[in-house]
Design goal:
Layout (H helix, E strand, L loop, with lengths): L3 H20 L8 H12 L15 E2 H13 L3 H18 L5 E2 L5 E2 L8 H12 L7 H15 L20 E2 L4 H17 L10 H8 L23 H4 L6 H13 L18 E2 L14 E2 L2 H9 L4 H18 L5 E2 L20 H5 L2
Antiparallel strand pairs: 1-2, 2-3, 4-5, 6-7
Helix pairs in contact: 2-12, 3-5, 4-5, 5-7, 11-12
Length: about 350
């Protein structure tokens, strides 16, 4: 369990950095490509790729996982491997795999242990062909711990009564579609990497369709409420678990119909009405409800390129304009398309996610 002192320390640091961002935001000059290349370069600190240059100058497991494939395509194999070496050594030292590692090098979970930490770490190892042999014992132990901590052995799904951190880490969800996509991705990667896998008897593509697909869109979680969630209808395809073209077209139509790609992609939901949040969300209201998130945007555009090239090009152009206007790659925007800020938080800048824009 993460200590309250560590939470307080990290929270104070982020608040002070956000205040600095508000007073004097950093600006790169040039085209959107120039801005994003400079951003990625500045996220390399000589030891590892940090998630951002401002609020989160540290290793975040899921964020690095989102960017690994793009970083490899951009020619950063050596730095990707060095980042994984850094993370694995810190995790092994503390015998845990967590959502993040503090700037001082200590792993911790925010706001609670996350289902997607191990899957994204393993996925980064596989995508980058990282030589993981010396870490096999540690990774196998963590896989077995993951299964015990998170998975219902009868169904193969994430236990619905657990309150876990996730991509939308302020939301309280009951075995979310996104989290179960992560489990399915993990199962596939473990098989390819020849690591221990307790998932062999489960068919995750079938489980996703059985428990989450309603014929028009994927439910956010097992409560099966009638709203459309961006992440729930993106990651079944990003992970390669669902390859059915009809389902893909229907999910994209649901995203577009719910307005989740406006003014540019992608929003988690169109409102906060049906979603419950942890208490920390009160400090950053609407941070993860109807806001536009720049981590999902390029991933959605990449998916849309297979379905509607013209619309994908339109959204890419909106990102280009947004990046050039800010002179930076920002974290999150309001539903009106303005940079998100509250009295206690100013949206991050200089995100490693810029790598995904560069590979559109």
């Amino acid at each position: 369990m993460t200590s309250p002192l560590l939470y307080a320390t990290q929270g104070t640091r982020i608040f002070l950095t956000g205040l600095k961002n508000k007073i004097k935001p950093h600006r790169y000059y040039g085209t959107a490509d120039d801005v994003c290349k400079l951003t990625v370069a500045d996220c390399w600190n000589g030891r590892f790729f940090q998630t951002s240059t401002h609020n989160f100058p540290q290793f975040w497991t899921r964020d690095f996982g989102w960017c690994t494939q793009s970083l490899m395509k951009l020619g950063h194999e050596e730095k990707v491997h060095q980042t994984l070496r850094y993370a694995l050594n810190r995790f092994k030292h503390y015998n845990t795999i967590t959502t993040t590692i503090s700037p001082a090098g200590k792993p911790f979970d925010f706001p609670s242990p996350a289902v997607d930490s191990l899957p994204w770490l393993i996925h980064s190892i596989r995508l980058s062909s990282f030589p993981h042999y010396e870490h096999r014992g540690f990774l196998n132990l963590q896989v077995q711990r993951f299964f015990k901590d998170f998975i219902n052995p009868v169904t193969g799904l994430v236990q619905p009564d657990l309150q876990v951190s996730s991509m939308k880490d302020f939301a309280v969800r009951k075995s979310s579609c996104y989290d179960n996509c992560m489990v399915g991705m993990l199962a596939a990667d473990l098989e390819q990497l020849k690591l221990v896998s307790p998932f062999e008897k489960y068919n995750y593509p079938a489980l996703l369709q059985e428990h989450f697909w309603n014929g028009s869109f994927f439910y956010d979680d097992l409560t099966k409420k009638g709203y459309v969630a961006g992440d729930a209808n993106l990651f079944p395809f990003i992970t390669g678990l669902i390859r059915d073209e009809e389902i893909l077209h229907a999910a994209i139509q649901a995203i577009e119909g719910a307005g989740l790609a406006e003014p540019f992609p992608l929003r988690y939901t169109s409102s906060r009405r049906h979603v419950h949040f942890v208490w920390q969300e009160k400090l950053m209201p609407n941070y993860e409800s109807d806001t536009v998130w720049a981590h999902m945007g390029p991933l959605y555009i990449k998916l849309l390129q297979h379905v509607d090239k013209d619309k994908a090009a339109l959204y890419r152009q909106r990102y280009t304009e947004m990046i050039e206007k800010a002179g930076n790659y920002l974290e999150v925007y309001t539903k009106e398309g303005l940079p998100y800020k509250t009295p206690l938080y100013t949206c991050d800048q200089g995100l490693l996610w810029a790598a995904n824009y560069l590979t559109l």
